[in-house]
């Protein structure tokens, strides 16, 4: 009995040391966070519109709401044509009114969607340095707790202000999960090639969340109601929390190396270029999230499930792109993968407004998702590599910068999309973002061969850095 309990303890200890299990936990955390992020995309715009217009919800067509013409009757001295013209004029006026309301709705929805990214943006500079002092496991678990609470508020919230609080709370939780998760992977996978593969898989979890979220939200909202999808997400989050408690055992772990200051990292031009690529890659899709469903409802009379399914090609191809360019980016040069990705993003953004049916959105949305996957899976491991060669192998702050770059796109995009759609229109908004991507792409040439710190400093740092890095190199040489 003693031997079996010792064996069990040894097995549990081996599980806790397993890099693969840590990778699975990080991937699940990113999956759930991004499922919550995107499940609301097809739900919130219509839900808020229906709250404000209970007598004319979006799910009911204007033709059904408009009074049908009375049959022709000689004694009433009416003509079918007169009645038809009257109804037609009413219907046209109703359509114009709904169009104005939907454009106005884009602004409110954009601000709600942006609140998560803005709060995450503000939290990152605190979470990054905090991980240097207490390790990654406690912030990671805190992220789960906050996300669980946010999901429950989304499930039962019935007003704009309550949903706004839920979205903002998710921002703090996301900051804890993303920064801690990426830092944990960078620490557990010190070899640059392995790190790229691991981060590609973790970003695949993120991609899967983005993939499942919109169709899951759209279908559940249409056929079951608003509360059900969020209750299911909260149950999944609870499972992830239990896994973290068992494997990570949240506790304070201090870093051995002296961490680079946030100021030193923020002023490093190479880190800024890599972070900028992440921002520009994601700002386009962030602008589409609040505006595309409303544009589709307005121009295509798209139903709820169609608004959710529209994002499906982007999500599937993002999943393919992140898994493909985790290892491929290392081979071809991450700068080249990211540069190509930005150019493809620009082309796809220009093509989206040309769509007149749901099917027309498949190719540009697929290309957009694939290209964003190229940029994200190349630049996230590149940030870890730049810290290794130019600073010290402590990763909390650099992934706070990486996550801030990601959030900046998702804060700027939804916050400005409503105002831009109102002032210059949906088409021109996407053309401007496409041009910004084209202009930024050549900046990535800086990352072809970034200079390392001087040799003497490198030797000092290597003495302080993790033994695993040296042992891995020895194993590779053998």
Describe the overall structure.
With 478 residues, the protein is mostly helical. The protein has helices spanning 2-17, 19-39, 44-52, 62-65, 80-134, 137-156, 160-188, 192-223, 227-247, 262-266, 269-299, 304-309, 312-332, 334-351, 362-390, 396-423, 426-440, 455-464, 467-477. The protein is built from 19 helices and no strands. Helix 5 crosses helix 7 (160-188), helix 6 packs antiparallel against helix 9 (227-247) and helix 11 packs antiparallel against helix 17 (426-440). It is globular.
SSE run:
HHHHHHHHHHHHHHHHHHH
Low-confidence stretches: 62-70, 455-478
Q: What is the mean pLDDT? A: 79
The share of residues in helices is over 70%
Radius of gyration from the CA trace? Answer: 25 Å
User: What is the SS-derived class?
Assistant: mainly alpha
* Main sheet properties: none
Total of DSSP H or I helical runs spanning 4+ residues:
19
End-to-end distance: 41 Å
Globally, the shape reads globular
User: What portion of residues belong to β-strands?
Assistant: under 5%
Index terms:
19 helices, single chain, disordered C terminus, mainly alpha, 478 residues
């Amino acid at each position: 009995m003693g031997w079996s309990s010792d064996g069990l303890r040894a097995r549990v200890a081996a599980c806790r040391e397993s890099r693969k299990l840590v990778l699975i936990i990080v991937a699940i955390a990113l999956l759930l966070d991004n499922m919550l992020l995107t499940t609301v995309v097809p739900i919130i715009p219509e839900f808020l519109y229906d709250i404000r217009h209970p007598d004319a919800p979006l799910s009911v067509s204007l033709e059904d709401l408009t009074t049908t013409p009375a049959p022709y009757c000689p004694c009433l001295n009416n003509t079918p044509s007169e009645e038809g013209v009257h109804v037609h004029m009413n219907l046209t006026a109703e359509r114009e009114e709904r169009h104005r309301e939907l454009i106005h709705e884009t602004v409110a929805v954009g601000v709600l969607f942006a609140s998560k990214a803005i709060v995450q943006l503000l939290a990152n500079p605190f979470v990054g340095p905090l991980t240097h002092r207490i390790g990654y496991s406690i912030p990671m678990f805190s992220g789960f707790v906050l996300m669980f609470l946010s999901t429950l508020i989304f499930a039962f919230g019935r007003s704009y202000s309550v949903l706004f609080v839920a979205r903002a709370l998710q921002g703090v939780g996301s900051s804890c999960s993303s920064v801690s998760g990426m830092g944990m992977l960078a620490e557990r996978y010190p070899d640059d090639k392995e790190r790229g593969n691991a981060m590609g898989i973790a970003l695949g979890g993120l991609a899967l969340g983005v993939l499942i979220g919109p169709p899951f939200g759209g279908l559940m909202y249409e056929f079951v109601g608003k509360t059900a999808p969020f209750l299911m997400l909260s149950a999944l989050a609870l499972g992830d929390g239990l896994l973290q408690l068992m494997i990570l055992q949240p506790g304070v772990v201090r870093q051995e190396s002296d961490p680079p200051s946030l100021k030193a990292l923020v002023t490093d031009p190479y880190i800024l270029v890599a972070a900028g690529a992440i921002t520009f890659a994601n700002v386009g899709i962030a602008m589409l999230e609040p505006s595309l469903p409303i544009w589709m409802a307005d121009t295509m009379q798209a139903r709820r499930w169609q608004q959710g399914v529209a994002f499906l090609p982007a999500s599937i191809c993002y999943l393919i792109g992140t898994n493909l360019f985790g290892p491929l980016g290392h081979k071809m040069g991450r700068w080249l993968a990211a540069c190509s990705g930005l150019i493809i993003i620009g082309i796809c953004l220009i093509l989206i407004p040309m769509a007149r049916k749901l099917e027309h959105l498949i190719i540009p949305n697929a290309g957009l998702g694939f290209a964003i996957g190229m940029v994200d899976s190349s630049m996230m491991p590149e940030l870890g590599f730049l810290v290794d060669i130019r600073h010290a192998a402590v990763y909390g702050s650099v992934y706070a910068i990486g996550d801030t770059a990601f959030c900046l796109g998702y804060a700027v995009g939804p916050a400005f999309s409503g105002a831009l759609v109102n002032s210059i229109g949906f088409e021109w908004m996407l053309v401007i973002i496409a041009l910004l991507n084209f202009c930024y792409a050549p900046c990535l040439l800086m990352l072809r061969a970034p200079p390392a710190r001087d040799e003497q400093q490198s030797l000092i740092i290597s003495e302080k850095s993790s033994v695993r890095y040296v042992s891995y190199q020895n194993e590779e040489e053998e």
